[in-house]
Design goal:
The complex is a heterodimer of chains A (269) and B (309). Chain A is mainly alpha-helical and 269 residues long. Chain A has twelve helices and two strands, in the order αααββααααααααα. Chain A has one domain. Chain A is elongated and about 60 Å long. Chain B has two domains: 216 residues, P-loop containing nucleotide triphosphate hydrolases (Rossmann fold, 3-Layer(aba) Sandwich); 64 residues, YebC, transcriptional regulation domain (Alpha-Beta Plaits, 2-Layer Sandwich), CATH 3.30.70. Chain B has a six-stranded mixed sheet with strand order 5-6-7-3-8-9, sandwiched between helices. In chain B, strand 8 and strand 9 form a beta hairpin. In chain B, helix 3 packs across helix 4 and helix 8 packs across helix 11. The chains are: A mainly alpha (269), B alpha/beta (309).
Chain lengths: 269, 309
C-alpha cells in the first residue's frame, strides 16, 4: 500500500516520546510508592563519606593525590565514594528491578503490546537509572563541598563523570539482568560489585600497589570513574581523563547494544 | 489486499528453534467481524495472535495487519490495536486507574483526554469503586476485566483477545459478550481465541479451528456444524473408563461414534430414534442425553479430543 511505503518511520519526537513514557511510569511508581528507596540510596554513600572520610581520615592524615601533592584523606577518598555510589545506584536500579519486571511482574510483556518496543524499554530503563545516578551525584557532591572535600571548580565536572559511570553500569546491569535465570544469580552481581568497590583505588592511591597490580586495577571498570572524579574534585585534570571517558563510553555503548539485542529476543520471541 | 480486510495471512509460519508452532496458515479477517481461533492447548493460537499483534516476528509467509507489514510498521500497527493477552500482565505497582493511565501514556494519549476515557473504562469494567486500589488486591476476574478495559484505552480499530473470558464468572462472561457485541456494533473488528464453544457460537461470525499449528477447518459456526457434525447427538454417560468398551456395542447405531473416557457420542440425524435403539440394545448408560450438535462436536470430530483437553 502506498501509505506504508511513503512512511519514513516515526518522527524524532515520537522516538523520544516512547521511552519517556516508561521513564514517567518509573517516576510515578517510585516517587509515590517507595520514597524511602530514594532516601536510602542517597543516605548510604553519605554515611560512608562521614564515617570513612572523617573517622579514618583523622587516623590516616594526608595521602598523595593526582599530581603528587598531598591531600587530606577525606578529600582523597570522597571522589572514590562518589564514583562507587554512582555504580551502586545503577546496579541497584538496573539488576533486580529489571529482572523482576522481565520475569516476575511481566511488566514489559504489556509494554511491548503498545507502540513501545524492546529498544525503547532498554533506553528508558538505562536512562532512568542514569538520571537517578545524576541526582544522587548532585547531592553527594554538595555534601562533599559542605565537608570541605572539594578543592577546585573543576569539581563540578564530577557530576557528568559520575553520571557517565552510572550510564555504563546501568547498561551493564541491564545486559546482565537479561541473561539471569534466577534470583540467586544476583549474588554474582554482588560478587563483582564488592571487589570493584574495594580495589578500584577507592581507598588508597594506586601508587601503593606493585606495578602489575596497578595494571589490573586500571583495567577494572570502576577505576576510570574513580580516577576521573578524583582528578576533578581535587582540581588536577589531566589528559588521561579522555581515556577514562572513552573507556566508560565504550562500555556503556557495548553493554547497551547487548541489552538491546537480548531484550528483543526475550520480549518478542 | 481489499479495503475490507483487516488482517490477512498467507502461509504464515512461526518456529521456535526446531519446533514449528504455526505451520503455514491462511486466513483473512474482514472489517467489522468477530473472528475466532479455536483449538486445543498448544495448537498455536497465541503464537498467531502475537504475530498479528506485532510482538513476535513471523518465521515465514505473508502477513498484513491494518494494511501494514508488522515487520516494518510494528509500532504503527500496535498503536491502532487493542491487545488482551492470555495471561494478565497488569502493572502490579500501580492502582487500578493508574494502570489505565500509565498504559494510555504509552500510546501518547494526552492526559486530559485519558482521564475522561478512564472514567468510562472503569465503568465498563465495573471497577469504578475500586479505582484507587492496588491491582494486587483484585480478584482474578476483576483483573481480567481491567486487562480488557486496558486494551480499549487507545480506542483501537482492531482488538485481539486471547481467551478473554477465561477466569470470569458466568455473569461477567455474559456482560463481556454484551460489551464485545456493542464494540462490534460500533465498527470495531475483533479477533479472539477461546476454549468455550458457547462463546464462539455466540460471538464469532467466522472462525477457524487450529490443531498442531494447522488450520483444520474454517467457516461460520453454523457452517461448521452443518459440514462436520450431524444434526443431533446422543450423549451416553458411563462410569469412568467404561465408555470405550461400550463404543463397540453402539457401533452401527449412528452415522458416526466417538468416545471419551466417560462418554460416548453418537452422531445421528434423529436423536430420539437412536436413543431408543440404544435402550433396546441392552446397554445401560448412567444417563442419556439427546441434543443438537454444536461446535463442540465439530471439534470432537476433527481432533478426536475435547476443546479444553
Ligand atoms: N516462546 C516460545 N518458545 C518456545 N516454544 C513456544 C514459545 N511460545 C509458544 N511455544 C510453543 O508453541 C506451541 C503453541 O503455543 P501457543 O501458546 O501458540 O498455543 P495455544 O494454542 O495458544 O495454546 P493454549 O490454548 O494452551 O493457550 C506450544 O507447543 C508452545 O510450547
Ligand atoms: Mg494460548
Amino acid at each position: 500500500m502506498a501509505r506504508s511505503s511513503l512512511t519514513l518511520g516515526p518522527s524524532l519526537a515520537e522516538r523520544a516520546r516512547r521511552p519517556s513514557a516508561l521513564v514517567a511510569r518509573n517516576f510515578f511508581v517510585q516517587v509515590r510508592a517507595v520514597p524511602y528507596v530514594w532516601a536510602s540510596g542517597l543516605l548510604e554513600p553519605i554515611l560512608y563519606l562521614l564515617s570513612i572520610g572523617i573517622g579514618i581520615g583523622h587516623l590516616v592524615g594526608k595521602v598523595p593525590g593526582p599530581g603528587g601533592a598531598l591531600v587530606p584523606y577525606a578529600a582523597f577518598v570522597a571522589p572514590g565514594l562518589l564514583a562507587t555510589s554512582a555504580m551502586n545506584g545503577a546496579i541497584y536500579e538496573c539488576t533486580t528491578n529489571i529482572f523482576a519486571k522481565l520475569h516476575w511482574a511481566k511488566l514489559y510483556d504489556a509494554v511491548v503490546a503498545t507502540p513501545l518496543g524492546p529498544t525503547d524499554i532498554a533506553v528508558a530503563e538505562v536512562g532512568f537509572a542514569t538520571f537517578r545516578c545524576f541526582l544522587y551525584a548532585g547531592v553527594f557532591l554538595a555534601t562533599m563541598a559542605a565537608l570541605g572535600d572539594v578543592r577546585s571548580w573543576w569539581a563540578i565536572m564530577c557530576l557528568p563523570a559520575a553520571t557517565l559511570v552510572g550510564a555504563a553500569f546501568a547498561s551493564a546491569g541491564f545486559a546482565a539482568s537479561c541473561f539471569m535465570r534466577s534470583w540467586t544469580d544476583f549474588d554474582k552481581v554482588q560478587m563483582v560489585a564488592m571487589p570493584l568497590f574495594l580495589f578500584s583505588a577507592t581507598f588508597y592511591p594506586l601508587s601503593e600497589l606493585p606495578r602489575w597490580l596497578q595494571l589490573v586495577v586500571e583495567a577494572l571498570p570502576l577505576y576510570p570513574g574513580v580516577a576521573l572524579c578524583r582528578q576533578f574534585s581535587l582540581g588536577h585534570p589531566s589528559a588521561s581523563a579522555f581515556g577514562y571517558i572513552i573507556y566508560l563510553s565504550v562500555l556503556a555503548l557495548l553493554a547497551g547494544e547487548v541489552s538491546r539485542r537480548r531484550v528483543t529476543k526475550l520480549l518478542t520471541p | 489486499m481489499s479495503t475490507g480486510t483487516r488482517v490477512s495471512a498467507r502461509g504464515l509460519r512461526k518456529s521456535f528453534g526446531d519446533f514449528t508452532a504455526v505451520d503455514g496458515i491462511d486466513f483473512e479477517v474482514r472489517a467489522g467481524e468477530v473472528f475466532g481461533f479455536l483449538g486445543p492447548n498448544g495448537a498455536g493460537k497465541s503464537s498467531t495472535m502475537r504475530m498479528v499483534g506485532a510482538t513476535s516476528e513471523r518465521t515465514g509467509g505473508e502477513l498484513s495487519v491494518l494494511g501494514l507489514d508488522p515487520s516494518h510498521d510494528g509500532a504503527t500497527i500496535r498503536s491502532r490495536l487493542g491487545v488482551v493477552p492470555q495471561e494478565d500482565n497488569l502493572d502490579l505497582e500501580l492502582s487500578v486507574s493508574d494502570n489505565l493511565f500509565v498504559y494510555g501514556r504509552y500510546f501518547g494519549i494526552p492526559r486530559r483526554e485519558l482521564r475522561a476515557r478512564i472514567v468510562d473504562l472503569l465503568h465498563f469494567a465495573r471497577l469504578s469503586e475500586r479505582a484507587t486500589e492496588k491491582v494486587d488486591n483484585l480478584s482474578g476476574g476483576m483483573k481480567r476485566r481491567l486487562t480488557i478495559a486496558r486494551g480499549l484505552v487507545n480506542e483501537p480499530e482492531l482488538i485481539l483477545l486471547d481467551e478473554p473470558t477465561t477466569g470470569l464468572d458466568p455473569q461477567a462472561r455474559h456482560l463481556l459478550w454484551d460489551r464485545l457485541y456493542s464494540l462490534k456494533q460500533s465498527g470495531v473488528t475483533l479477533v479472539l481465541t477461546t476454549h468455550y464453544m458457547d462463546e464462539a457460537e455466540q460471538l464469532c461470525d467466522r472462525l477457524v479451528v487450529m490443531d498442531k499449528g494447522h488450520i483444520i477447518a474454517a467457516g461460520s459456526p453454523r457452517e461448521l456444524v452443518d459440514r462436520y457434525a450431524t444434526k443431533e447427538v446422543v450423549e451416553l454417560r458411563f462410569p469412568a473408563g467404561e465408555a470405550r468398551r461400550a463404543l463397540e456395542e453402539v457401533d452401527g447405531l449412528a452415522r458416526r461414534v466417538e468416545a471419551l473416557a466417560d462418554r460416548v457420542f453418537l452422531y445421528t440425524d434423529d436423536g430420539d430414534e437412536t436413543a431408543e435403539e440404544v435402550a433396546h440394545s441392552g446397554l445401560r448408560p448412567t444417563s442419556t442425553l439427546v441434543r443438537r450438535a454444536s461446535l463442540e462436536d465439530v471439534f470432537m470430530t476433527l481432533t478426536g479430543r475435547q476443546l479444553d483437553d
